[in-house]
Design goal:
Layout lengths: L5 E12 L6 H9 L4 E13 L4 E5 L6 H8 L7 E6 L9 H4 L2 E5 L11 H11 L4 H15 L14 H13 L5 E5 L7 H18 L2 E5 L3 H7 L2 E6 L2 E7 H8 L2 E8 L5 H5 L4 E5 L2 E7 L3 H9 L5 E8 L2 H12 L1
Parallel strand pairs: 3-7, 3-8, 5-6, 6-7
Antiparallel strand pairs: 1-2, 1-4, 8-9, 10-12, 10-13, 11-12
Helix pairs in contact: 4-6
């Protein structure tokens, strides 16, 4: 078995803080004697990732996902533990390492807000010392794949969220990184924009064999892109394994959401199995995945005025709660 490209051993990040009590007397006392408290953002996290893997890194808000990625990228220094990426220790922030990875954060931009995205691309070309030939070839490829020929010449502040994220990806990939950290790359986008970004990530990972760690709150991102997932909660890894095994064990049901043309009688909806919620013109059903087709077919073939029907997976937070409850 070949050596892992990312190795993490008992990684910890602990923050020190103190609670300030109200009142002048307590404020004065705190100047001389303040009780120290500690918050474990990441606690004894360990995992290996092979070259070319696309791994989902999941957890609820505050679980420690972004903190872990920031340590792997060298933005934060761990309190303890070891990590090696391509043989480098990220905390040393060596230039050779920084030239070989990229970090894309859906909620933060690396593009110059008041300039066209193309200006940021040119700046990155100089920062990463990309040759004219490589820059043109890579830029042309990304522009075609992401369909942003005209977009890259618009002022960044005028771009839609989906357009901006496409440009963020281009800016991050121009130097051909071997490792890519994606933190919520589709957050806030409509379903079409999300699919476009997912399609690009999947194609890029397959063709370039880039190692990718992806965080997302959207179950569809994980289902479409990741064969393996690592779940972190309260700073600790609570699951590391195949996506399909996780779904079989912890996401046994799917959610069927039904919209009606007008309000219907409760007794007409309650006759269907697995009803979860009903409000006049809306109904939802929590259905075992092996029975989803039968239940959906039964609803559609009824005399009810069905306007729309949607079948979706349980959200990531619900799956994590199921795992966490079992492991208590």
């Amino acid at each position: 078995m070949k050596k892992a490209i990312i190795e993490v051993r008992k990684l910890n990040k602990t923050y020190e803080y103190s609670n300030k009590k109200e009142g002048l007397k307590n404020s004065f006392r705190d100047l001389f004697k303040r009780k120290k408290l500690y918050k474990h953002a990441v606690k004894d996290v360990s995992f290996d990732i092979q070259e070319g893997e696309l791994v989902g890194f999941l957890g609820p808000n505050g679980a420690g996902k972004t903190t872990t990625l920031k340590m792997l990228s060298g933005i934060l220094t761990p309190s303890s533990g070891e990590m090696k990426i391509m043989g480098f220790d990220p905390s040393k922030r060596e230039e050779k390492y920084q030239m070989q990875f990229a970090f894309v954060m859906g909620q933060k931009s690396q593009l110059w807000w008041d300039l066209p995205a193309m200006e940021s691309f040119i700046l990155n070309k100089e920062i990463y010392e990309i040759s004219d030939k490589d820059f043109k070839e890579r830029l042309d490829e990304f522009v075609e794949l992401l369909d942003v020929k005209d977009v890259i010449y618009k002022q960044v502040r005028q771009l839609s969220l989906g357009e901006r994220m496409k440009c963020e990806l281009i800016a991050s990939l121009l130097h051909a990184p071997k490792v890519l950290f994606l933190d919520e790359p589709t957050i806030g986008m409509d379903v079409v924009a999300q699919k476009n970004i997912r399609d690009f990530i999947k194609k890029y990972n397959k063709e370039k064999k880039v190692t990718i760690i992806l965080t997302s709150h959207y179950m569809e991102d994980i289902l479409q892109l990741c064969e393996r997932i690592i779940i972190i909660n309260l700073g600790q890894v609570i699951y590391d394994g195949p996506m399909d095994a996780l779904i079989r064990k912890y996401a046994a049901n799917k959610l069927i959401s039904v919209s009606f043309e007008n309000e219907v009688k409760s007794e007409d909806v309650e006759k269907f199995e697995f009803l979860k919620k009903f409000e006049g013109a809306q109904a939802s059903f929590d259905v075992p995945r092996e029975k989803v087709k039968d239940v959906a077919r039964e609803i559609l073939s009824s005399n009810l005025p069905v306007k729309d029907i949607d079948i979706s997976e349980e959200d990531v937070d619900a799956i994590i709660r199921n795992i966490y409850v079992e492991k208590k």
